[in-house]
Write a structure and sequence with these properties.
Elements (H helix, E strand, L loop, with lengths): L13 H8 L2 H13 L2 E2 L9 H14 L2 E6 L2 E6 L1 H7 L3 H7 L9
Antiparallel strand pairs: 1-3, 2-3
Helix pairs in contact: 1-3
Length: 106
């Protein structure tokens, strides 16, 4: 399995990160990674179809929020917290600590 491409630090934008974090499913994915660390793609509890979840992973990766690594046929997702904290200090903490009722349901 080929490693997916990830944006360099200078390619990550605030608008891209905010867009990626604006979706409740993607936010749930990020919260699970933040709480538990690296996770295998098939282990997220978000209640969407596998194909839909794959699209959410792509948006998060392309925005620079997550990193996906391949190990055999498995994919593992981690949060690029160090990069996000360097580029946008405090942003991730604010988003992750926001009360759930602040996030509008879809």
């Amino acid at each position: 399995m080929r490693e997916p491409e990830h944006p360099r630090h200078d390619q990550i934008t605030l608008t891209g990160v905010l867009h990626a974090l604006s979706d409740p499913t993607r936010l749930a994915v990020v919260r699970q990674i933040a709480a538990e660390g690296e996770r295998q793609c098939g282990t997220f509890e978000v209640g969407v179809a596998k194909s839909t979840l794959s699209q959410h992973f792509r948006v998060l990766r392309e925005a620079g929020v997550t990193r996906t690594r391949c190990q055999g046929t498995q994919r593992f997702v981690t949060l690029r917290r160090d990069v996000l904290d360097e580029l946008f200090p405090g942003l991730l903490d604010v988003v992750l600590n926001a009360p759930a009722h602040v996030v509008a349901p879809r």
